[in-house]
Amino acid sequence: IFPALKSALSEISDRSGRRPSRKQAPRAEGAAGRRRAQPCQKEPARGSPRPGSSQRKQAERRRQREELGEQGRSSAERTFEGRRKRDGRASLKEQRAPPKKEKEVPRKEEMWKRPKKHRSPSLASSASGGESLSEEELAWILEQVEDRKKLIATMRNKPWPMTKKLRELREAQEFVEKYEGALGKGRGKRLYAYRMLVAKKWVKFKRDFDNFKTQCIPWEMKIKDIESHFGSSVASYFIFLRWMYGVNLVLFGLIFGLVIIPEVLMGVPYGSIPRKTVPRAEEEKAMDFSVLWDFEGYIKYSALFYGYYNNQRTIGWLRYRLPMAYFMVGVSVFGYSLMIVIRSMASNSQGSASDGESANFTFSFKMFTSWDYLIGNSETADNKYASITTSFKESIVDEQESNKEENIHLTRFLRVLANFLIICCLCGSGYLIYFVVKRSQEFSKMQNVSWYERNEVEIVMSLLGMFCPPLFETIAALENYHPRIGLKWQLGRIFALFLGNLYTFLLALMDDVHLKLSNEETIKNITHWTLFNYYNSSGWNESVPRPPLHPADVPRGSCWETAVGIEFMRLTVSDMLVTYITILLGDFLRACFVRFMNYCWCWDLEAGFPSYAEFDISGNVLGLIFNQGMIWMGSFYAPGLVGINVLRLLTSMYFQCWAVMSSNVPHERVFKASRSNNFYMGLLLLVLFLSLLPVAYTIMSLPPSFDCGPFSGKNRMYDVIQETIENDFPTFLGKIFAFLANPGLIVPAILLMFLAIYYLNSVSKSLSRANAQLRKKIQALREVEKSHKSVKGRKTAQDSEDTAKDASKNATQLQLTKEGTTPHSASQNETPDKKAQDPGTSSSASGTMLPASRHLSIARPPGARPDSGPARPQTHPWRSASRKSAQRPPH
Amino acid sequence: MTLGDPRSFCDLAPQLVPLDYTSCPDVKVPYELIGSMPELKDNPFRQRIAQVFSEDGDGHMTLDNFLDMFSVMSEMAPRDLKAYYAFKIYDFNNDGYICAWDLEQTVTKLTRGELSAEEVSLVCEKVLDEADGDHDGRLSLEDFQNMILRAPDFLSTFHIRI
């Protein structure tokens, strides 16, 4: 019985492993008794390079291969099982089948262990001997080793219990270790082993390096900590903050490395020329803290601001072209920011592209994915329970409301009213800012102004930012929107408020700039006259040349660029302080009060009125975005601004982490981080664009100050490029550039770009349409399959169980069958065999194409069976095939 | 290959688990201790999780079961594996399908029973309506996977920080 059993099993492995190339060998080997020797005699003659090998050696080799075949069988069995598992669309039948198989594997292994034990030494010795293995065997071992390796790699994906995983892993590893060395032949063997060793080390190194990389991500632990307490939505703010910090760090490196450090190292030192010296009138107070705090005095005349830079074409022994570098860095700050924002938006939307039909599963998603398994804090858990309950209720209400009609006129009226009120608020706040900025311009002309009058603009803007959002929220209650839509509106309105404020501020600033520009001509004359008078005044010895006028005494213009830079600097710093003070007072003190006064208060403070503050994600994100907008706008006129911002982000990371953990409670209304992320990015992109506009306007259309900054003396700032092209590049390049700048070329280029955008857009639209169609097709296919299965479900399940259980029994049955069928005539035998085989091959072919339905067609009995009794094993292709091979001997 | 930490397993029940856990690998930690781990104690499905990963479904775990649990719930585990075990967790009566009763259990656990019976049944009805592809009144693993693999935050929420 034993050989027949083996042959059956080898057939199973062969079929299931789907390796037709190797089918020949095991089948031949599996042929019963005396026939077996024949193919084996052929094999070595084909495979081995030396024809003069003895009979004994051949026999040994045959034994080796047999032994390997057994091992290969078990692995093939496993890979087959694994593949079935991985097929994903696992049906009920597959769910039931694997446990049986799992149980079966040990049984088989027991069977194989016996022969393996006494054979493996010979194999091991011959394997280490190396040269006695033929090409074919080597290829086969290679394949086996590859299979095992694949198994090791995919072990993680299998829903096996740990003991099984460990056992399989160990076995596979042992196999790989044992036979890997045998693969190299002769001289190349050592090299092969060495290469394997290196590959192993490399894998280990890569894993260690990945670990190291995750450890190197800054604040990862802090953010994870917050995530586990507050859920992923709050953590998303901190991830955004970290991303922002990274972007700012790059900008900082750009500006510091290419502008500020060269200027400090190689530029003319402080005090050598008027623009680098504090004027005589300010000298007394230039070091006072109150003056420095306003970024006047020494700070104003430092490398942090535009005005400090000299218009010398090249500086230092490196002949560094500073004005050129300044201009290019200013442009590339915007370029880099645009690129990085758009790239991260694209990668975000790529991730969320798949959830196009997530609207179909609102309740299911709420049911199965709303619980955040990360939550490890009972307070958070309580909040989560509450928020899940509310979200369920919300959805229920939505569901009910979709059928219900209500008083649409009243709602409309209320919504119009609310929008009207909010527009009024926005206009009012805009006017207030305009008014305040105008006033501050007057104050700046006066001499001794109070602290309030000096900082009025910042204070008013901060107050507006603090009180308008709650006001909007109150008004929004009128509208009776769905909370999610309401939140979007709220975000949009706050955005509009901030934007309006910022732009009003900018317009007022622009007025100021124009005023300064108009004064510039007179100041220029005054400077000229002063110098002229100084050098030509009488009463000085004519023979000795007069020492040059001290730079502090030279009258100078108001340098509007520096003034703009200072405004942005102040705004950033005051914004930062207001944020911190709000956190300290509004969150921390409130939390302390609630926590400690609760012992002696007449009502429950924690549950009642003040309670703890929530972490305001939308407000914080918007604040961050607008702060970044200011940085983008201001960084051209105040290169040091990015440095300040890096500090600000760094401190706010630690400070806000601490504040959140110490004094905030999680949100009632949770909105999902994965969705809103791109919304924030979109806002950021909008702000970036809007902050690009004023900078571009000033660069392109305002003349730079005549006595400060790297572009002084030029008509426009961008003239620096033309100058560089003319002086430093060969003339033909200059011509090419001039040609490129021709409007006749630029307009067609823009048109071409529009065309390209249109084309790509239509292509992507058609692709997404095709995608939707394919999805529909898959859906339809699945439905067909399901209906098919629900009919056959029970039957196939039963059948598969039989298959698994009877795999070993079959073999014995086969033997019986063989003996039972031999009395029949040959022609009678032939027909059922063929019938059984054809569906088998066709089913395996279809199985490769459509793995989901493979088991179905394999397991299903192929049509009506002509003969009932002994032909039972024909239902399975491998059985019939094996039977055929088993039947071959009687001739 | 796993992220579970044997030390935390020992910490759960120092009197039960010898430090050298290899000497007797079959020591079981009772569910009362597993369920009170900081990672699980606030999870409404902690009992189900323990049952699914324990060998005989009673929630008592050996070290191997424990490692299994954390390797599935770790951040690195593949989607399909997670979906498979999520299905097992939500299949309260272990019959291979998520039926209306299982759904009711889930909703009750998620909301701590704060929804009325009508609302619960409405929710279950809606879920079956949405996710039941073959309209047999219950969710098979296939239906479940089909639904859950589209969920945008299944992967981010279905893992335990270790």
From TrEMBL, chain A:
Which residue intervals are annotated with compositional bias (Basic and acidic residues) in the record?
Answer: 57-113, 796-808
Q: Where is the composition biased (Basic residues)?
A: 881-891
| Domain TMC, residue spans | 559-674
- Could you tell me which residues belong to the region Disordered? 1-130, 783-891
GO cellular component terms, alphabetically, are: cuticular plate; plasma membrane; stereocilium tip
PANTHER family assigned to the protein according to its UniProt record, in alphabetical order = TRANSMEMBRANE CHANNEL-LIKE PROTEIN 2 (PTHR23302:SF17), TRANSMEMBRANE CHANNEL-RELATED (PTHR23302)
- A GO MF label: voltage-gated calcium channel activity
Compartments reported by the entry: Membrane
Q: Which UniProt keywords apply?
A: Membrane, Transmembrane, Transmembrane helix
Instruction: Give me any GO biological process, just one.
Output: vestibular reflex
Q: What is this protein called?
A: Transmembrane channel-like protein
Q: InterPro entries recorded for this chain?
A: TMC, TMC_dom
TrEMBL record, chain B:
| Coiled coil ranges | none
Cite the Pfam families for this sequence. EF-hand_7
Domain named EF-hand is located at 78-113, 119-154
Q: Where are the transmembrane segments?
A: none
GO terms classed as biological process: calcium ion homeostasis
Q: Which UniProt keywords apply?
A: Calcium, Magnesium, Metal-binding, Repeat
Q: Does the keyword Magnesium apply?
A: yes
Q: Which domain of life is it from?
A: Eukaryota
List the InterPro entries hit by this protein, alphabetically.
CIBP, EF-hand-dom_pair, EF_Hand_1_Ca_BS, EF_hand_dom
Q: Name one GO molecular function term.
A: magnesium ion binding
Cross-referenced PANTHER family, in alphabetical order? CALCIUM AND INTEGRIN BINDING FAMILY MEMBER 2 (PTHR45791), CALCIUM AND INTEGRIN-BINDING FAMILY MEMBER 3 (PTHR45791:SF7)
The name under which this protein is listed is Calcium and integrin binding family member 3
